[in-house]
Amino acid sequence: MNAPYSQVQRLGRLTTVLGADALVLLRFDGADHVNELFEYRVEALAASGDVDFDALMGSHATVTVEGARGRRHFDGIVTQGRWLGAGENGHRYDLVLRPWFWLAGRRRNLRIFHNQTVVQILRALFSDYATLGDPALELKLSEDYRPLEYTVQFRESDLDFARRQMERHGISFHFKHAMGSHTLVLTDDVLAHPSIGERPYKGHDGHHQAEEEHFWEWAPERNLTSGAVRLTDYNFKTPAATMEADRLGDATHAQGQIESFDWPGDYQDQDQGRAMAGLRLRQERGADRRNRAAGDCLSLGAGMLVSLAGDPVPGTGERYLCLSARYRFVSEAYGSGGPGGEGYAFSGSYTMMPDSAPMAPPRRIAAPLVSGPQTAFVVGEGEIDCDEYGRILVRFHWDLEGANSMRCRVSQNWAGNGWGGMSIPRIGMEVVVEFLDGDPDKPLVTGCLFNGQNAPPYELPAARTRTVWRSNTHQGQGFNEISFEDQAGREQVYLHAQRDHETVIGHDQSHQIGHDRRKTVGNDQTENVGGNKTITIGRNHAETIGADKVLSVGGDHAETIGGNMGLTVTGARAQTVTGDDATTVTNGDHSVTVANGKQEVRVLAAGRYTTVNNDIVTISETGGVRVRAATAVVLDAPSIMLKANDTNYILIAEGRVVIEGAETFINPRERAPNL
């Protein structure tokens, strides 16, 4: 076995962390692409059959090929290594080189980005890989990208998430290479790509082998694509806004106006929709024009611009963007029995598009779908945190970084313009979150859950027959509640107001109570009836008043009592009648008893009349009775008797005046005794 090997004078060399010429290049095959990862396969030779794969794996390896216009580096991370066997010249190995971006495909994550542009998101994402290139990332972007309220990486690799966001916003990527390093380059305009100048086309003929880089095959190609894009979307903040947007392509051939319609369009208003429709159209129409070529243009790689010169073919004089390049290089043999160097040492095949054609990365990475509901905890400031739409913040159980979600809309049982149901989940509650169209960027709270920390308002299963809606006093202790007990024989509707209870009824209110009703008022009670009030009591009515009672009647007051009426006043009683006062006893007696004191009746204006239709009027006093008048006292009757005792009286009747007494004085000179 001939060893060691030297690559110093070779057209192709392999450099690894194992040291100079520890592995020497035999063969190199690979391809790189715009908007795809490159992959290079390297066949190498080593004197030892015990290569240190632990040192080699995950490290940079660089293939360098010398060409007519200088050398070209092809750098990558060693992601696979294999021993192929031993021969007379040494041990052969197969290595696979991929970009550091490929490593991002090995890491899966779930995380949330708030109010960041796609550029900020990509920078944050790629910062974890910054040491893998010098530099690892280069941005050549010219567009202004709006901040995104909420963007979720959901159970997808960093690679897929980054590519999905780039495709979403029309950002392309390719790689540029240096010794021991490669750089991910992001662009959004074809002019941001480097140009290698002109390369000629010369027909496939062997006498051109030793000349400068050129193409020996050239084939223009056309592809039928969608020729129009129509999108629409919905923004809950502007539900009546027109959201439809469309764009028509430039194809003039038959079937060139086939329209692609999609929902949701991923935008917030119609202006954004027009821009998004334009991007989608470029993504569709960008697949139309292609040019397939073959040659030995070592300096041409994916993401580079080249102008076609040389023999006239369709497209000569135009400039093209290389979309993909496939390379093949065979080194000179090391000793006998190795790979030969017949034909071209380096050859390539290329796929290009005119630089005037629409350029945007096609959408290849599918967005993740949330297959079902999730649960999360409500978070925020204070006890209740919502915005003017009732949206809340939640934190998902998978969010290891503790980032809150965006403001999530909350499903209500009814929602109209100023009417409907409203129940805002509070901090610490566990809620059910679903996702519109399965999109993790569009969470929607649809329910709440009890758990080991948040217990039901009644103990279960004991209260399993009770349906409850109980609130919790904000910044205090207490609750409001309405609940229904459905246990047979114990059915109940229960209402509890922690403080005030107001009922507003636009028209009638009816209460029908099959049994008792009890009402207890701890303080004042006020009733205001604008019309009539009717109370019908089938049996007894008892009222107890602890202090005063005031009754004010603006009109008439009538009371009808079917039986007896008793009125007991333990103090004084005063009655004032501004009009007439009439008491009628239709059947029975009328008595007024003054137990201790006197009775006084004063008529200040007109006369006073006492009429008895039956029997006689008897006035009985234990003391004296005095009748005094300012003018005259008139007794008008067929018979009038003034009686002092059984033997002394004055009788006026039937035209006679009878005076009977032990002594009688008429016009005495001295006043009679006791008068």
Description:
This protein has 675 residues and is mainly beta. Among the domains are: 12-99, Pnp Oxidase, Chain A (Roll), CATH 2.30.110.50; 374-449, Beta Barrel (OB fold (Dihydrolipoamide Acetyltransferase, E2P)); 633-675, no CATH class. The chain contains five helices and 31 strands. Strands 1, 2, 3, 4, 5, 6, 12, 13, 17, 18, 19 and 20 form a twelve-stranded mixed sheet that branches. It is rod-shaped, with a radius of gyration of 54 Å. The protein starts with 11 loop residues before the first strand and ends in a 15-residue tail after the last strand. The model is unreliable at 337-343 (pLDDT under 50). This is Type VI secretion system secreted protein VgrG. Residues 507-521 have a biased composition (Basic and acidic residues). Residues 507-533 are annotated as: Disordered. Belongs to the VgrG protein family.
Radius of gyration, Cα only, in angstroms? 54 Å
In what range is the share of β-strand residues?
25-35%
Major pleated sheet:
12 strands, mixed
Q: What's the β-strand tally? A: 31
